[in-house]
C-alpha cells in the first residue's frame, strides 16, 4: 500500500504524537500543525526513538496553524488526501467564561473542514471525545455512539460542550455543504498510557497527582479509560479503512472509580503514599470552593458512566488494553522519569 499524504493538526499534543507515530510507522507522510515553530524539534525528538525506520522522519513536515485564524490552512492542506483533526483546547480546570473553550473548538473544526473542502481533501478523521456522548443524561445502559451529550445540562462542563458542539458542527458541514467529505470521528474516553516525551496532557496529570500523595482521599467519581496507544491505532484504522466513513467510534476499555484506580496504583507502588479512601461528597464540594481543579469535577460526583466499545471491536477489529494496565504504565513512566513527586 502506498502511503497517504496526511495533515495532522495539533501534532505536539499527547494523543497526536502517538497518532503521528502510528501514521509514520505505517508508511504515510505527515504534515503536522503547530501553533509555534518552536515545537517542531520537540515533536521530532519525541517520535525519533520509537520509529521502526529512522528515515520515516523524512516523511514528516510541519505547518504553523492556529484554530482561531485563517492564515495558512489552505496552503497546509493543499495536496493532502486526509485531514486528521486533533487540535482542541483541553483545560485542567474549567474557565470562568465557557466561550474561551467553546469558540476555538467549534471555529477550529469549521476552519479545518472548510480548508479541507476547498483543497479537495477526501477523508477527514476528527478526534472528538466521550464527553460528546456521555454527559447530562442517564440512559440506564452503557452509552453508545447513538447518544449525544445534552449541552444544556448542568452536568455538561465547558469542555464537554466544546467537544459536543465541535463534533456536531463537523457532521452538519458534511451533511449540508460537503457530502463528498468522508468523515469519521473517534471519541476517546479518559486517555491514559505512557507519553512519548515529558510533555503530556491533563489526564496524565491526574495520575501524577494521585502518585504525589497530595490528596488524603479520592473523589467519588470515575471514568471510562482508554490507552493512548489504542486511540492512535483507531485513528490509523480510520484513515486506512473507507468502511468507517460516516461513523462515530467510542475508544474505551472500561470504567473505573477513582478508588479502583488508587488501589491499582497502590498495588503497583506499595512504597508510595497513595490515597485510597473515598472522600465524602460534602467535603469535595467544600474543597471545590478553593481549588479550581476540584471544582471542575463536582458535576461528576457519584457518576460512573459506562460506555460500549462494541462498535470499535466489531467494525474496526479493536482489542483494548486493560484500563488498569494503562493506568500502571502511565504511572511507571512518570516514576521512571522522576515526574511523580
From TrEMBL:
The keyword Kinase does not apply. One of its GO terms (molecular function) is oxidoreductase activity, acting on the CH-OH group of donors, NAD or NADP as acceptor. Gene3D superfamilies: NAD(P)-binding Rossmann-like Domain (3.40.50.720). It comes from the Bacteria. InterPro entries: Epimerase_deHydtase, NAD(P)-bd_dom_sf, NAD(P)_dehydrat-like. Pfam families: Epimerase. The keyword Electron transport does not apply. SUPFAM superfamilies: NAD(P)-binding Rossmann-fold domains (SSF51735). Residues 6-248 form the NAD-dependent epimerase/dehydratase domain. Keywords: Oxidoreductase. Belongs to the NAD(P)-dependent epimerase/dehydratase family. Dihydroflavonol-4-reductase subfamily. PANTHER family: NAD DEPENDENT EPIMERASE/DEHYDRATASE, STEROL-4-ALPHA-CARBOXYLATE 3-DEHYDROGENASE, DECARBOXYLATING. This is Dihydroflavonol-4-reductase. It comes from Allgaiera indica.
Amino acid at each position: 500500500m502506498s502511503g497517504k499524504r496526511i495533515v495532522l493538526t495539533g501534532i505536539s499534543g499527547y494523543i497526536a504524537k502517538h497518532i503521528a507515530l502510528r501514521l509514520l510507522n505505517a508508511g504515510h507522510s505527515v504534515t503536522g500543525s503547530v501553533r509555534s515553530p518552536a515545537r517542531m524539534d520537540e515533536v521530532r525528538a519525541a517520535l525519533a526513538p520509537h520509529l521502526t525506520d529512522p528515515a520515516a522522519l523524512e516523511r514528516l513536515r510541519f505547518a504553523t496553524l492556529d484554530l482561531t485564524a485563517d492564515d495558512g490552512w489552505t496552503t497546509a492542506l493543499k495536496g493532502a488526501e486526509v485531514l486528521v483533526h486533533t487540535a482542541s483546547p483541553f483545560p485542567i480546570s474549567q474557565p470562568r467564561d465557557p466561550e474561551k473553550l467553546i469558540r476555538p473548538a467549534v471555529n477550529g473544526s469549521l476552519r479545518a473542514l472548510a480548508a479541507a473542502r476547498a483543497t479537495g481533501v477526501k477523508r477527514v478523521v476528527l478526534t472528538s471525545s466521550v464527553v460528546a456522548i456521555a454527559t447530562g443524561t442517564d440512559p440506564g445502559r452503557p452509552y453508545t455512539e447513538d447518544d449525544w451529550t445534552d449541552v444544556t445540562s448542568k452536568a455538561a462542563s465547558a469542555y464537554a460542550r466544546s467537544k459536543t458542539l465541535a463534533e456536531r458542527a463537523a457532521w452538519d458541514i458534511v451533511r449540508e455543504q460537503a457530502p463528498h467529505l468522508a468523515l469519521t470521528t473517534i471519541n476517546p474516553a479518559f486517555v491514559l498510557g505512557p507519553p512519548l516525551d515529558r510533555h503530556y496532557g491533563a489526564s496524565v496529570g491526574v495520575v501524577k497527582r494521585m502518585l504525589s500523595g497530595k490528596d488524603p482521599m479520592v473523589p467519588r467519581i470515575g471514568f471510562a479509560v482508554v490507552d493512548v496507544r489504542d486511540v492512535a491505532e483507531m485513528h490509523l484504522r480510520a484513515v486506512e479503512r473507507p468502511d468507517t466513513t460516516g461513523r462515530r467510534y467510542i475508544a474505551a476499555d472500561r470504567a473505573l472509580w477513582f478508588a479502583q484506580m488508587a488501589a491499582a496504583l497502590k498495588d503497583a507502588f506499595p512504597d508510595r503514599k497513595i490515597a485510597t479512601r473515598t472522600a465524602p461528597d460534602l467535603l469535595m464540594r467544600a474543597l471545590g470552593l478553593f481549588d479550581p481543579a476540584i471544582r471542575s469535577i463536582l458535576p461528576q460526583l457519584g457518576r460512573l458512566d459506562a460506555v460500549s466499545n462494541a462498535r470499535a471491536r466489531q467494525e474496526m477489529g479493536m482489542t483494548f488494553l486493560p484500563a488498569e494496565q494503562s493506568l500502571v504504565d502511565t504511572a511507571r513512566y512518570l516514576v521512571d522519569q522522576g515526574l511523580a513527586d
